[in-house]
Design a protein that fits this description.
The structure is a single chain. By secondary structure, the protein is α/β, with parallel strands linked by helices. The chain has one domain: 2,3-Dihydroxybiphenyl 1,2-Dioxygenase, domain 1 (Roll). The protein contains 2 helices and 8 strands, in the order E-H-E-E-E-E-H-E-E-E. The longest helix has 13 residues.
Length: 121
Amino acid sequence: MIGYVTVGTNDMTRAAAFYDALLAEFGAKRGWESERYLAWNFTNGQMLLIIKPIDGREATVGNGMMVSLGATSAAHVDAVYARAIALGAQDEGPAGPRGDNFYAGYFRDLDGNKLAVYYAG
């Protein structure tokens, strides 16, 4: 089980507004906060953090790296995906079926980090 995931940002204020709105779709609440990072807590104990890299360099997108958010239904996937796009995310594959019993949508946040929202069932 993964406890938390971090994604880099170069604009903490802009990223915080994006993730406040997006993660509200999961009932996540802000947790830890500092000048360098901000965390959202999910009801299952997991966390997602946005962070300015500790080495002081610009945050960049990891090639092949993706964060996947588990949804409660295909309709939840549709809602989260639509919310992300409305918040300015870039489409990386619209919400829809991806093989047997797997439904997902893919997008990039405002810093270019790739995320997916999925439902398997």
